[in-house]
């Protein structure tokens, strides 16, 4: 039985009380009366004491259990000196890259280095290294040899097995052998973190702690927790659905009397038949699964064979439901990476307790008046849930937080809104968001706990919404109404990702959202219009978008508001052809959309879409046995630029590339100067690359003279609507090339886009 989160007996240092901020210096430790830290957390982000930032949440959680926790924020990694700033921890170093993967944080989808970092004071760049978890862990070992090192966060979580690394274009080893960490905590970290920390405090060795869910570690090739464990090759399990053999309900049992065999007759044993009830059969099956480990293809196999890589990715994702997932192991040289099953999600009371810890809700005073964009973005927002059952193949949420929604209570959310109103400087009465990874999955779950525990679907909403999924929006509607009725609250905005295929199931919710919680624009993300790429994304078709658009416009009109939908799309996603992007551009042209920000697919470690990108095979279906489905993949820089150019067909700088592509596709009929054409035949001076020998159209009032700029009669109409610029301080505006990632989570990261899904 799973131990409740706060059922541990507190550590002795609980008597020292609560720190106003977790200390970042020896002087702060001395002021608190500490001679040492029990746990030192190393992070690539600025330290902001707010539950939206992983290290603050983890630190306050450990503090609440009586541990002395210090923070080393954005240390100079060029030597071990900065890692000695707080002395040697009595228990361990906890290492994270921060709320975002360090590679996603530092590089664009074109592998160009970014000029800013939203999680750093004044957005200064170059304050964290590439692959920060590995670098920080090695420096911790150098600073204090022999001190245990535990790694976590989105970066470690998404690199827990061998994975394709887009930035080096190679398959890299698990982060465990690279970082030489003693333990990796993945997914929702609270349970594992408290369990491991309390056991270390009681004197257990970290090398002996091997039974905690949500943890990974290195073991010998022949290691098993007990002799009774069963190892199964993943190549025998490359199929979804039930895998273990059923217990035979008609099995002959030895117990009970047996009939006498007549003398001289054949020796035939007759035994009574015992019918095994279904519940007993299921329990027996579950017991076997709990003692089964699946051996994935080893590192060398997945590195050198795309089919094995796609197969390993498929099995990994099929073993992601905490209700039925089995342990995984993968050989890396002479040792194995061992991954225990995913953690059990937090209950609502546990979530409430985590978010009710005594956060200062501000950056550490050492930063002075420096602006930290990520803090500016979320300071007036509230996280109401975590997890996502959408299963979008390009998204990092489900690989990290899981598919089971974990929700706070309405009272807990209201209490935090009141705390923002009463305690946060600069509050003007506007809550910027009530959400999380998605805006409207709050309290949604499977109608049956038994079905949920047995389910092996990768998505609850693809290809259609599961009949067993509860899509009731009533609790969310009630929360919205109660929140906006609070004294001092002028407006509650919803800026997290809206799952519009769920929203159309509740006309009342759409009306509530549109009439009270939209600030003129609502961003939603169909991601594409064509069936090919949508099937590889596991996204719904445009029918759901069209239904939501009708409901959105009707609700806006009913209250006399002019409000607009801003759709977001992904270019160059696996499964996308040039024709798909052309059709998307024509759809945008038809609906008079001129996108300001666009997103080119960025392969993040372990995502299913990344497996497609690397292997050109579809892991959503059986891979081995010659049955792998090929996937068209865009890797060349020119083609990726072309797909992005189709999304911005209205940008004159893209016209030369588009003209060349349209001619090659036999679609010259789309080049011309009327409204029916996609792009004009002329090129304004100072834009794009003028085709050799090309003539510009006749200037108004002239005859055959080159025009200095586009003629007035052909000037593109203003955007209707133009996609708004991101708010200042938005850590990862949708369309900047950063993929969907996860916020407000221990050893996790803030989800960047905030765009609707």
Please, how many helices?
24
**Helix- and strand-based class?**
alpha/beta
Overall spatial form: globular
Number of DSSP E strands: 23
- Note the main sheet: 10 strands, mixed
Overview of the structural elements:
The chain is of the alpha/beta class and 757 residues long. It has a domain at 222-250 and 273-327. It contains 24 helices and 23 strands. Strands 3-1-4-5-8-9-13-12-11-10 form a ten-stranded mixed β-sheet, with helices on both faces. The longest helix is centred in the C-terminal third of the chain and has 17 residues, at 542-558. The protein is globular.
Topology:
Blueprint: H1 26-31, E1 39-43, E2 48-49, H2 54-64, E3 69-73, E4 92-95, H3 102-106, H4 132-143, E5 149-151, H5 153-157, E6 163-165, E7 170-172, H6 175-179, E8 183-185, H7 190-201, E9 215-220, E10 230-233, H8 278-290, E11 292-295, H9 299-304, H10 306-318, E12 327-332, E13 335-339, H11 348-355, E14 362-363, H12 373-378, E15 381-383, E16 385-386, H13 397-400, E17 406-407, H14 410-423, E18 430-431, E19 433-435, H15 449-454, H16 474-484, E20 491-492, H17 500-503, H18 507-516, E21 521-527, H19 531-537, H20 542-558, E22 564-571, H21 578-590, E23 599-600, H22 608-615, H23 637-647, H24 655-664
Parallel strand pairs: 1-3, 1-4, 4-5, 5-8, 10-11, 11-12, 15-19, 18-20, 21-22, 22-23
Antiparallel strand pairs: 2-14, 6-7, 8-9, 9-13, 12-13, 16-17
